[in-house]
Amino acid sequence: MTAFILKRLGFAAITLFAVLTIVFFIVRVLPGDPALAILGDQASQAALEALRVRLGLDVPLYQQYVAFLGGVLVGDWGISMVSGRPVIEEIIKVLPATLELTIASLILGVVVGIPIGVWSAVRRNKLPDYLARIGSLLGLSFPAFVSAVLLLLFFSIQLRWFPVISSGQGGSLADRLRDLALPAINLGLIMAAYITRVTRSAMLEVLNQDYVRTAHAKGLVFAVIVWRHCLRNALIPVVTVVGLYLGILIGNSVLTEIVFNRPGLGKLIVGALNQRDYTMLQGMMVIYTLIVVLVNLVTDLTYGLIDPRIKYA
Amino acid sequence: MKARMGIALAGLLVAGNAFAAGTTLNVGMGSADAGKLDPHVATSTPDKGLLHWMFSGLVRIKPGEASPEFIEPDIAKSWTTSDDGLTWTFSLRDDVECHGDYGKIDAEDVVYSLKRSANPEVSAFAKDYTAFDSIEATGPLEVTIKLKNTVPSLLGLLVPYHGGNIVCKDAVEALGEEYQRTPIGTGPFMFAEYQPQQYVKLVANPEYYRGEPKIKEIYYRYIPSDSSRDLAFQAGEIDMIYGKQEQTWVERIQKVPGTKVTVMKPGEMSVIHLNMTMPPLDDVRVRRAVAHAINRDAMVQFKGPDVTLAALSPVPEGHLGFTADVPTYEYSIDKAKALLAEAGHPDGVTIKAIHTTLPGMLSTMEAVQALLREAGITLEIETVEHATFHEQIRKDMSQVTHYAAARFPVADVYLSQFFHSDATVGTETAIANFSHCAVADAEIAAARVETDPAKQLALWATAQQKIMDEVCAVPVVQSMQLWAWKDTLDLGVTVNGSLNLSPPVTEQAAFSE
Amino acid sequence: MTSPSHSPRLSRSAYLRIALASLAAGLFKAFNANKTSWIGLAVFLIVALLALLAPVIAPYDPLDQNILNRLKPPSAAHWLGTDYYGRDTLSRILWGARISLTIGLMAIGSAMVIGTLIGMIAGYFGGRTDLLIMQVMDVLLAFPSLILGLIVVAMLGPSVANLVIAIALTAIPPFSRIARAPTIAVKNREFIEAGHALGYSHPRLMFGHILPNIAPEVLVMGSLWLATAIRVEASLAFIGLGVNPPTATWGGMIREGFENILDSFWLALFPSLAILIVVFSLNLLGDGLRDAVDPRLKGEQ
Asked: Which of B293, B318, B385, B392 has its CA 20 to 30 A from that of A99?
């Protein structure tokens, strides 16, 4: 087990290296000039050249690359080209808001999604099943930014329960929860929709396996069979989906962040992309890769917890 | 004893009232985050709008106006000009304090600040100051500027806008790299705090030379989603809001009780630049056909008659030197088709535009696309993301370039940046001449150094006529700046315009009630 | 895990024939057993037909602007109202279906095939192969779809085909992980061990025995991701990897509608409903397919 984790972490380092190398070269190949993005459309050619020199973009690419890798190794991620603040500082300032939102919507998704999925599978092709399926499809087809505005209109404008601007850094816990509620509901329901679908399909499969029929025949209480034996076996695909979705969520929650005015990694990365802030993009990819690698590792370890037959090689 | 109680009670009441009136101003701006906060580098609308409330210039345009005809003293209390217009001497106020502990502004600070603006190493506006021969402190509170040649509006270069924002020498030197994150000026409000993707907080400058502002705190909030910004205003979470440049926005936000909507100059003029070196646009008849096919009335209807002006001349209406007396091309599908046929394209032409995905600009271009389609002109729009757009049009890659910009309101700026051959894209001195227009070089250059105002106006008028005769570009509409705020907020001035594109929040602004 | 040299081999075409025949038979059986899958198929075919017939049945030219008649709510003349430019929303939805369905089906279809294959190979062979493949997938997965999209457009330029590539690239790693996990679980079961003992070849075990076991999850995932693919198209449009204007796509329409959501909410609502209908029909269909390919699942009648 420990060997497995160490091995995975070793490979994570390789992944990180590969991602960084790709990002480093890709952002520089992309059309769009950071100097122009910073100085704006009235800048003269001379001013643009001067800024490129100041940003260190005039030295040969391989030298920039070596300097960049060296910096990463000693934990120096550079200075944002646009704001002039250290990249790591900018990331750390918004990271808690992102993690908070991700975890809250994950919990909401699991708490809502798994029971509905199980219920839907047990009552297959009955009314509850149809309702659950329609509900989850609604959650999947509706674009997050449209549902976000609807939530705002209803809860913030009509009912005035929650603020429109959810700063994500209120002082008290109550403030923070109030800020978090709507964005977490928005993302959490989408997450729940995915989990419901996957749980239902995995449960259906397990419910039809021989041992369930046997157990049932033996007179075990059906609820016990479902919750204790079947769900455990159905969890593998669920965990896979949750793991995948988490990674995607962190990078792609930008629309929710924008509509609810929350700070977060999504906004940071899109901003960096728009401004061609190379250093910021590189830093973002480091953190993003770390999260994805970590989530994948946890996912793989969870398989073992659920199903002891799975061996780690 | 009773009397004292009475006073205490009155004090409480006053305190209560003061609280009710409010001293905190929440502003909603349409961008995701702050960019550069160094005034000599900041070029984006959100950054300029914020710095507007923090900086002073040697002179300023009267708050609420956007035209250089309203120039009045600021840090300089008076100034004199030599007869040839080449030497300007400014005498400064002695009570201008820098924010924080950086002391009083003197001639040396002003010289340092203007030299910094003229230095391309640290300033995005250096080329505006190329006519400056020398800037010297000729006394502790006296600054003398010598010019190589006259410029159309010297005072315009010294208002708190772009390079004219006066920075404090000690602050810049003490803060170094940190200055771009902690701007120090001499204006009514000073920088206090920055929360990424959230807000910049400003506080009242108690030492401000026109008196301490009544508003004590400004939260300049970054709210990129138009819908959310509107909802936050509707919910009362923000007091002042940056609007979407559209009629529908004005109509909706006006319905929020207690709202004052303001339409401000300068407008952003949407211009379709036609690359005169790329066939079929190298034929003036094709360019004229394009001009005939664009229905300006329909475009004004489309963008909103209350917030948009039709644009006829290559210089925006309201700029010093603008003339409406230019060749115009009335809307006529028949004439457009006839011109195309005459040019050897009886079946129409296909032209290509690289265009940004920014929704506001794209919608204008899509409407133009539909208008051209009726005249048999197929406009292919290749959308690219905004940074790519800027790079590619600067590299002369687009046949048709739609550009929307607001500039300092003197004809020379627009003409030089967009229609003088020095600014042609793809060259060493490129700025924004996307059409390769060179027909009015002589007039633009001559007007720049002409000292007789009447002759200068005549030269600018000729330049505009020549450009329209050749149809280097087709001006379409001018979109005004839109803001709204609660009517309990009194800015203390009539707001017709603002160079920095944000309403003037000065020492006079206060909440009533 | 070495295959004995005397293993019985079947030609590739024989595999294909067997697989197709059993799939078809299963499909038919399951379809008969499950009425909802017929509904799903019918709805999807209707949508596809409407898309095909768009040039004939659309009431207006989808590109025709009428600036004086814009942002109008649904009416007799314009059943679904008009958009920001005064274009008929219904006509644009019909025309948009052609592009959006093509993008969604092609992107997810290819991602499903490629991703499943990769995941099965990784899960089946395990060890170094697994680590290597999943490492490559992790690298891909580490790029948020926006960044991946931008990279694709920067290298290939914006077009429908490149949009398909961009979306497929973001969907391959999830499919590979979805396929890999059950493969690991299945390969340790007795019947696979037995297969090894009988000397079956790797492809035979993978396609004949493992694929039917993992197909349900993959298919369900596919029907889920189709919705995502159509929506991703909308968010990619933000960064310039959209289909160029004035061509209508559902994602693009939602994005445009979002600009005016407080004034004319139906502009975002109707294309969203169109996506919902497609996703719903595909899910019903997916359930039927699932029953068909899952050897253990029988209809409940």
From this structure: B385
Q: How far is CA A141 from the centre of its chain?
A: 19
In chain A, residues with a C-beta closer than 8 Å to the C-beta of C241 are: none
Backbone angles phi, psi at B120, to 5 degrees: -60, -15
CB B486 within 8 Å of CB B260: yes
- Say if CB A154 and CB A142 are below 8 A apart: no
Q: Which residues contact A204 (CB under 8 A, 6 or more apart)?
A: A121, A124, C297
CA distance A48 to A54: 10
Nearest CA in chain A to B232: A164
C300 CB within 8 Å of a chain B CB: no
Confidence band for B486, pLDDT divided at 50, 70 and 90 = very high
Residue C216 pLDDT more than 80? Answer: no
Bridge partners, B137 (sequence order) = B143
The pair phi, psi for residue B52, each rounded to 5°, is: -50, -40
Contact C138 A30 (CB under 8 A): no
Q: Which residue has the tokens 């020398």?
A: B134
Query: Any CB–CB contact under 8 A between B513 and chain A?
Result: no
Return the axis-axis angle of helices A127-141 and C266-293, rounded to nearest 10°. Answer: 130
Chain C residues within 8 A of A201 when measuring between CB atoms? 216-217, 220, 290
Of B45, B27, B44, the C-alpha closest to B229 is: B27
- List, for residues A192-208, the tens digit of each pLDDT value: 988 898 888 888 877 77
Give the pLDDT confidence of B101-112 residue by residue, as tens digits: 899 999 999 999
CA distance to A109, A286, B236, C131, C138, per residue, from A10 (Å): 32, 15, 53, 11, 13
Taking an 8 Å cut-off on Cβ atoms, the answer to whether A138 and C276 are in contact is yes
| Parallel, antiparallel or unpaired: strands B59-61 and B71-73 | antiparallel
Ranges of H-type helices in C63-159: 89-125, 127-142, 145-156
Contact residues, chain C, for A12 at CB < 8 Å: 138
pLDDT at B233: 94
Interface contact flag, B385 A152, Cβ < 8 Å: no
For residue C253, list chain B residues with Cβ-Cβ distance below 8 A. none
| C35, C37, C38, C41: CA torsion to nearest 10 | 170
- Among C residues 232-271, those touching chain B with beta carbons less than 8 Å apart: 237-240, 242, 244-246, 256, 258-263
Which of A205-214, A260-269, B47-56 is modeled with the greatest confidence? Answer: B47-56
CA distances from A86 to A83, A187, B9, C132 (A): 9, 30, 52, 34
Summarised one tens digit per residue, pLDDT across range A80-108 is: 887 778 888 888 888 888 888 888 998 99
Query: In this predicted model, what pLDDT tens digit does every residue of C34-86 receive, in sequence order?
Result: 677 788 888 989 999 999 998 988 888 888 888 778 888 888 888 898 888 88
Best mutation target among B197, B394, B434 (most A Cβ atoms within 10 Å) is B197
CB contact (8 A) between residue B124 and residue A165: no
> Cα separation of A35 and A30, whole Å?
14
**pLDDT > 80? residue B200:** yes
- Give the end-to-end CA distance of chain B in Å, rounded to a whole number: 31
Those chains having 3 or more beta-carbon pairs within 8 angstroms of chain C are: A, B
Scanning the structure block, which residue is given the tokens 């010289």?
Answer: B111
B266 pLDDT higher than 60: yes
Is the CB of residue C37 less than 8 Å from the CB of residue C284? yes
User: Which chain B residues have a beta carbon less than 8 Å from that of A44?
Assistant: 120, 126-127, 429, 431
Specify the residue for token string 């009630």. Answer: B513
Q: What is the pLDDT of residues A141-168, one digit of tens each?
A: 777 777 888 888 888 888 888 888 876 5
Burial class (CB in 10 A: 0-12, 13-18, 19+), C197: exposed
The pTM of the full predicted model, rounded to 2 decimals, is 0.84
Q: Which two tokens stand for residue B258?
A: 């207690």
